[in-house]
Amino acid sequence: MMKLQWLALSAMTFAASHAWASDTLRCGSQLISLGDRSSEVLQKCGEPVSRDVLGYKRSANRREEFQVEEWAYGPNNGMYQYLRFEGNRLRQITSKRGN
Fold it and tell me: What is the model's pTM?
């Protein structure tokens, strides 16, 4: 019995300490989704607590480059949300518990 409790606690700790991705995020009564423009996200979620330019990425046809940016929101109930934009389009939403 004790071993089972230890395993359950270990699994919960592992899950809580790692980030996980989602396709949508609720900002108040608004919902943002992958593919949304950065201007839409800004209108629905407001100004992020930080914005970082991560670099540039080449398009699939290698003819153009676009900026890769990460916005951070939070903490909200101890969670931070990180939004990754590629060429002004939302490509990834990651949530992570703050330290």
Answer: 0.75
